[in-house]
Design a protein that fits this description.
Strand content: 15-25%
Number of strands: 15
Number of helices: 9
Helix content: 25-40%
Order of helices and strands: EEEHEEEEHEHEHEHEHEHEHEHE
Largest sheet: 7 strands, mixed
Length: about 350
């Protein structure tokens, strides 16, 4: 069979012949129909992810959609190097496979699950959003941020504030249901004041940016918050703006601020599994907002670093198999933003 194979960390994989997977006890072989490329996958392939390693060669791909030998359409969650989903077939623990609801497109599911799951787990497991509470999505203009808006509203958020740089993407966030927006433009003082005006009394922050934007958001919120004893639950999900943030100690003493992270190590495997199954069940009602670019796996080496339309997600499909999904794009264009997942 064929697979994408990384021989040097940080270099694009090559499409090569590899041995067929040999299932261990409790595993089954699944035919892969779609596997998405996103920052987590790139991080594993470069050896830079905090849970990854440097074993080579490796097959990239963290998750995907496949078909069992019985013909069942399934979601494949959480494969880590060196055995990823960017292969014609993979061996997966049978108990880990999750049925995909009828009528969903495998390419659309593969594209949507990572950004949607980052938002879903952050909201449900880490932020513990309750009915009627308000949410600030810091970094709302990427795939994960847009999913966070939809899922927060789906889970009963009373108000959603969307923050990001791109004015057109912020208008799209409003169309998705965001009640207020904050544009990350102008002086630091202007940005902090904008957060104070739009998000001073939010209950949960989903932070896909970190670094200076997060500092300005927290400063603006605390300076204008009506009741500083009202708990602010800050969930750190991504660091698109940078890896470090300065938090003056006084900020944590003068207000009830609870900071936690949401990532692969932040909840147990059992809780993650349950959350993903819940999300899959919700997908038919929460229309994915991720634009897909379906590319044959045979083109992985050239497509890996190719420019992409802003907000689009590259999904690899069998080299000689399914046509791109309805609405999927077959060409790449200009990359305008970095996806925050």
């Amino acid at each position: 069979m064929y697979a994408a194979l990384v021989h040097a960390l940080g270099q694009p994989p090559r499409y090569e012949s590899v041995p067929e997977p040999v299932p261990a006890a409790g595993e089954v072989v699944v035919e892969v129909l779609a596997a998405a490329l996103y920052p987590l996958v790139r991080s594993f392939a470069s050896g830079g992810h905090y849970t990854g390693g440097d074993a080579l060669p490796l097959i990239p791909g963290f998750d995907g959609v496949g078909r069992t030998q019985d013909g069942e359409l399934v979601y494949i969650p959480g494969l880590e190097p060196p055995h990823g989903t960017m292969a014609e077939r993979v061996a997966v623990p049978a108990a880990a496979l999750m049925p995909v609801p009828a009528g969903l497109d495998p390419v659309a599911v593969a594209a949507a699950m990572n950004p949607a799951s980052s938002a879903w787990i952050a909201l449900r497991e880490r932020g513990r959003l309750r009915q009627g509470e308000s949410v600030l999505v810091l970094g709302a203009t990427g795939n994960a941020g847009r999913a966070a808006i939809r899922l927060a509203l789906d889970q009963g958020a009373g108000a959603v504030v969307a923050a990001g740089r791109d004015p057109e993407a912020l208008r799209a966030a409003t169309e998705l249901g965001a009640h207020r927006t904050v544009r990350l433009a102008g002086s630091d003082e202007e940005i902090a004041a904008a957060f104070g005006a739009a998000a001073a009394d939010v209950d949960v922050v989903l932070d896909y940016l970190w670094d200076r934007p997060a500092e300005l958001a927290l400063d603006g919120i605390l300076r204008h918050r009506a009741d500083l004893s009202r708990t602010l639950r800050w969930v750190q999900v991504g660091s698109a703006a940078g890896p470090d943030m300065t938090v003056p100690s006084a900020w944590l003493r003068k207000a009830d601020v609870s900071v936690c992270g949401s990532g692969l190590g932040s909840i147990s495997g059992a809780r993650r599994d349950a959350a993903l199954r819940e999300l899959l069940a919700r997908l038919p009602d929460v229309v994915p907002t991720t634009e897909t670019v379906a590319v044959p796996m045979a083109d992985v080496e050239t497509a890996w670093d190719a420019p992409m339309p802003s907000g689009a997600r590259l999904v690899f499909v069998p080299a000689g198999g399914d046509e791109p999904a309805s609405g999927a794009r077959e060409a790449v264009g200009d990359r305008e933003t970095v996806e925050t997942v």
